[in-house]
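Service request form, structural biology core

Requester: graduate student, group of Dr. S.
Request type: structure prediction, single chain
Budget code: on file
Notes: please return the result as structure tokens.

Sequence provided:
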Amino acid sequence: MDSKAIQKLVPQLFSLVEELEAAAPGVNFSPAGSMIGTIGEVIAAARYGLELAKSANEGFDAIAPDGRKVEVKTSTRKYGIFLLRVLSEPIPDLHLIALKLDKKGRAETVYNGPASLAYKHCGPKQKANFYPIGEKTLRELQKSLIDQQLPETIHK
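Core staff response, request fulfilled:
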């Protein structure tokens, strides 16, 4: 898995989106959903030494080197909103990594800490079975989590 190669392809993805939107004015082709999520998972796996889990796991995307389950969320929106899954049952010690991916393929870590803390600050459950939490809230929570973060295994 080559996260650097994937990050180099992201600008092409956004360029294609711009072409699609020019060809169909008024239609939004903004990259989102599972493709952006998968790109974020690959970047987080490389950055934090995670082992990616099988697709469609209930509530986690990867396993950290210390054995913790990790949920990775990725946003490309200017003012990021992250959607946390409603879990059928809590996952003990679940860790959350929230990444903001820009059009140049750069991924900034917005949050790296206990998922339980983020869930406590989410908005009300949405119809699509997700809890929304804003980028600003995650950044504020992040400030107090220096000793609870997964360490980076590679540089960005």
